[in-house]
Amino acid sequence: MNFSVLMSVYAKENARYLEECLNSLAKQTLQANEVILVEDGLITTDLSEIIKQYRNELNIISVRIPKNVGLAMALNTGLKNCSYNLIARMDTDDIALPIRFEKQIDFIKKNPDVDIVGSFAIEIDEHGAHGNTRKTTVNHDQIHKNLFTCPFIHPTILFKKDKITALGGYNTKLKRRQDYELWFRCAQAGAKFANIPESLLLYRFTTQTHKRQNLKTCIEQGNIGYNGVKSLKQPLWQGIACYIPILRAILPHKIQHIIYPILKKFDPRQKEYS
């Protein structure tokens, strides 16, 4: 089964993280046929050198955009350049565990009706030290029921290109949470969801992550969730719950990072595994 990996990189990316990411792709027990790497604007020499180092080994195909256009448009550009219908998403600061692609491709072979499949992930800090395991609901019905919680970890996703492009791809009007909005549209279109109940990715989670979770972002996230819940005619309380992250966003970043593990205990995505 042929498949592509889709990634986007821009000038402010951490070169060490990118090297660890590409090295993890090189160590996969099942190799991708191509890595579509969108260069969103001009990138640094350090980043270019790392990409050059892995280009032949991973069959990296660079898609260069002259000026930075943001993640959504970069990913949509990358989608158009993917040669295969199965596409694995990766972020350049994360690390794929060696069996990730093998597990997901095997899952799709056994469940050909599934359009989008993710997995659990293990959080890592800036030094690579392991933290919490991010778990989420697994079967389609539970994922659909809990879409307001965004029950997918975006860089763990393997999806079918034709299903995503038929919906117009990622929403370019959004600066963040484009994946969250996309899952609601996929649900409306009748897409079949799944998560593999196993950690297949090391997910970079640092204090910098919370700095990106500012008030404006959380309001936008709340609006996406509320409108998505409304479109699927799901309970009103779910739509209201989508605004809860705003309360966390007004706290100092260090405090957010400290209370995060406590709040996770109340996450409905965890109930299936508590």
TrEMBL record:
KW Ligase (keyword) present: no
UniProt domain Glycosyltransferase 2-like: residue ranges: 4-134
Coiled coil regions in record: none
Keywords: Glycosyltransferase, Transferase
GO MF annotations in UniProt: glycosyltransferase activity
Pfam families: Glycos_transf_2
UniProt keyword Glycosyltransferase present: yes
Family: Belongs to the glycosyltransferase 2 family.
Protein name in the entry: Glycosyl transferase family 2
Native source species: Thiothrix nivea (strain ATCC 35100 / DSM 5205 / JP2)
